[in-house]
């Protein structure tokens, strides 16, 4: 019964894949905007990497001497 419902749903939904007159997907973004987005993402990744390396390589202070 569940298989029959799934097949019926697929058959009914199949015509919804029609092309509605637009181009193939949305128009391509401006190359300058794309470059700026990738540059920003690279900058953030670099800052995160530097922060992690700084935290991991930080020397711990020696324990205080026992009095």
Report what the structure shows.
The chain is an all-alpha fold and 67 residues long. It has a domain at 30-58. The protein contains 2 helices and no strands. It has helices at 2-13, 31-56.
Unreliable sequence segments: none
Classify the beta-strand content into a percent band: under 5%
Distance between the termini: 80 Å
How many strand elements? 0
Q: Would you tell me the structural class of the helices and strands? A: mainly alpha
Mean pLDDT: 79
The H-and-E topology, N to C, reads as HH
Give a quick account of the main beta sheet: strands, pairing sense, barrel closure. Answer: none
Discrete helix count: 2
Taken from the alpha-carbon principal axes, the silhouette is elongated
Question: Which value, in Å, is the CA radius of gyration?
Answer: 28 Å
Helical content stands at 55-70%
